[in-house]
Design a protein that fits this description.
Length: 262
Amino acid sequence: MIKQPYQDTTLLHFDSFNKQSDIKAFSTTRDKGFSHAPYSGLNMGPTTADETEHVISNHVAVAEAIERPRETLFFTRQVHGNQVARVDSLARPVPEADALITQTPGICICVQTADCVPILLFDAENNAIAAVHSGWRGTVQHILVRTLEAMNRAFGTNPAKIMAGIGPSISPEVYEVGPEVIEQVKSAFPHTWQQLLKPGISEDKAMLDLWRANHQLLTASGVRTYHIEIAQMCTFSNPDLFYSARRDGAKTGRMASGILLR
C-alpha cells in the first residue's frame, strides 16, 4: 500500500486501486487526528465512547483528504454478521450490516475495523463497489461470498472482473484463537482449513490466517488472483500506526476503509 500524509491525517492507498481513475479508495491510520487517550489519533469509530466532536473532526479530516464533504462518508452499524446492504442514497438509513454495496457515485461506503479485515471491491465493468467488514465471524459465515452474490444480483457483477483490496488487519503471526473458533473454521473451510490454522502457543489453540481465508473466498468465487492485493500490514504489531482491540482492549479507536465512485 502507498502511505500518503495529508494535513490532519495519513491515509493508505492500494496500489492497484490508485491506478483506477473511476474510484477513490483508502484505509485510515491512527496518525494525527483529534482524539485523546485512549483513542489518541484519528479515531473513526462513531460507536466508540470517544467524544462525538473528536470523531466528527476526524471524519472531516479524512473527507478533506479525499476531497469530498464529510456527509459523503457512509457508515452503518456492524454486528459481525454476514448481512449485505445496498446504499442508493446518503439520506436513506441502512439497517445493521457488515457489507455495503453501491452503484451511486459520490457515496463513500466505509467499514470500521480494529483488527478485523476490511475488504474493498471494485467492479469496473458495471461501475459498482463494495466495502466489507470480515472478522473471524464474518469470514466463517462467508460474508465475501454473500457480497459478491449481492453485487451479481443487483449490478450484474462478474467476479472474474472484480478488483479486491484486503486491508490492514491482525496478522497470522499473532492472531491466536481458541477451540470454538478452530471448529468453526474447520467447518467453514473443510478442504483447506489446514492452510489457515497453524499450531498456537497453547496446545488447544491455533494461529488463524484471516488474510488467506478471505483470499480463498475471493478466488473460490471466481475473482482472479492477480486482481487481489493484500496489504499485509498487521494492526496488532504496529501500535503507532493502527488501533487494535486484541492489543488494547475494547476501549480503543477504529480505522476506516472506504471506497467511492467519482
